[in-house]
Amino acid sequence: MTKAELRAYLVTHPNDKTAFYAFVDRFTSEASSATFPMAHSPEEIEEVAHLIEQKVRS
């Protein structure tokens, strides 16, 4: 099952803890360990929000 399929399954089966943990395990194993400094100005916060929105949509 792809990550997208697993996410879709979780939306329709929110009480399936086994699927939830499988999704979290897959998400954390593929996640980048890079860290970034905290945004401070309103412009930086807006930029971060925009980047997150782009990532969620892709």
Task: Give the structure's gist in a few sentences.
It is built from three helices and no strands. The chain has helices at 3-12, 17-30, 42-57. The longest helix has 16 residues, at 42-57.
Q: Work out the number of β strands.
A: 0
Describe the main β-sheet briefly. Answer: none
What is the typical, i.e. mean, pLDDT? Answer: 89
Instruction: Please mark out the parts with pLDDT under 50 across 5 or more consecutive residues, or reply none.
Output: none
Order of helices and strands: HHH
**How many alpha or pi helices?**
3
Alpha carbon gap, first and last residue: 18 Å
Structural class: mainly alpha
Strand content: under 5%
- Please give the radius of gyration in angstroms: 15 Å
Helix content class: 55-70%
Identify the overall geometry. Answer: elongated
What do you see in this structure?
- This protein is an all-alpha fold.
- The chain contains three helices and no strands.
- Helix 1 runs antiparallel to helix 2.
Please describe the structure with a list of short key phrases separated by commas or semicolons.
58 residues, mainly alpha, 3 helices, elongated
Layout: helices, strands, pairs:
Blueprint: H1 3-12, H2 17-30, H3 42-57
